[in-house]
Design a protein that fits this description.
Layout lengths: L9 H22 L11 H5 L1 H4 L10 E6 L1 H10 L7 E8 L3 E8 L2 E8 L6 H12 L4 E10 L15 E6 L2 E6 L4 H5 L7 E4 L8 H10 L2 E5 L2 H11 L4 E11 L20 H22 L4 H7 L23
Helix pairs in contact: 4-9, 5-8
């Protein structure tokens, strides 16, 4: 009997159950025994995750949430001699599951949010949906993923997708274009379509072909499109942008022997860590530069009066941004 405790979340369970099943099949095949593998999940525990982890209090109304490499972006802001004097400390929230540090930068309230042990896969969508319910006006997901472009894009290309597609291996679940305020301000960063499957074990040759050939996706991960889809469905007025770099290349069928300089087998070694620091610094600079600028559309939406149901407002303006619907 083997008991394996996995942090709540369907995608976590799928990932580790698949690994264990493969190992059991290999072991049992060698011993001539049948495989008897049963997986037990607790969906209600997942649905109530924000309650039993005391998520309430980590996000405040009007916050611009920086998620993922949040500490790196905040450290970059504090290291900038022109921006650091403009930062006003507001509050810190921390428990055993979350940490958020809120600062004011000009007219924005920035919330640098960290999920300590369960931010992978669909759980990111659960917590970011709750952030929107708590009153967040924008979510910036700063993270890493994989590239479908070419091996030389690893630790080099900054991905900031316009369109997000969620997949369950060979099925498309959602296809959304969120309200992307970052791309309104920085349209040259746009990199087209991004796909998210449920776990790394789904990222095989067939998934790669589907992502690139059928969906046109240049980048791939397990979280970004799930967050985008949850917000587009339940909170379409909340801004969302993902800013990512790639740590590995998803190979095509026939590229099994293709040598790549970096992948998930060596991404913790010194050469990869050095490249990671360089691309992270570039991404942190892009995000910090954007956050330091006031956003007219964000400030307008942030006004408490405009968040009340039934509010009528006449706006005389011309919007010229395709990402801001």
């Amino acid at each position: 009997t083997l008991f394996c405790a996995v942090t709540s979340g369907a995608d976590y369970v799928l990932h580790y159950a698949s690994l264990l099943r493969y190992a059991l099949v290999e072991l049992c095949a060698g011993a001539g025994a049948a495989v008897d593998a049963r997986v037990v999940r607790y969906p209600e525990m997942e649905r109530q995750l924000c309650e039993w982890t005391a998520h309430a209090g980590s996000i405040q109304p009007g916050d611009t949430v920086v998620y993922g490499y949040a500490e790196g972006v905040l450290a970059h802001l504090r290291a900038d001699s022109t921006l650091e004097p403009r930062l006003e400390a507001l509050s810190v929230f921390e428990n055993e599951h979350y940490r958020s540090e809120r600062v004011r930068l000009g007219e924005r309230v920035l919330n640098f949010y960290a999920c300590k042990e369960h931010g992978w896969g669909n759980i990111s969508a659960v917590t970011m949906r709750r952030a929107a319910e708590a009153g967040a006006v924008e979510i910036l997901y700063v993270s890493k993923g994989a590239t479908c472009d070419a091996p030389d894009a690893i630790y080099e290309q900054i991905y900031c997708p316009e369109r997000f597609v969620t997949c369950a291996y060979d099925r498309t679940l959602a296809d959304v274009v969120p309200r992307n305020l970052l791309l309104c301000a920085r349209p040259a960063l746009a990199t087209g379509t991004h796909a998210s499957c449920r776990c790394v074990l789904e990222e095989d040759y067939a998934m790669r072909e589907r992502a690139l050939s059928l969906l046109g996706a240049r980048s791939l991960d397990n979280e970004a499109a799930q967050i985008a889809a949850a917000l587009a469905r339940d909170h379409p007025s909340v801004g969302f942008a993902a800013v990512q770099f790639s740590t590995d290349y998803i190979r095509r069928a026939g590229e099994q022997r293709l040598a790549t300089p970096f992948d998930l087998a060596n991404n913790r070694r010194p050469p990869a860590e050095a490249r990671r620091r360089v691309i992270q610094a570039r991404i942190f600079a892009v995000v910090a530069d954007y956050l330091a600028e006031p956003s007219a559309s964000l400030l307008l939406y942030s006004h408490p009066a405009l968040r009340r149901p039934g509010t009528t407002l006449e706006i005389r303006a011309t919007l010229r941004c395709a990402h801001n619907r």
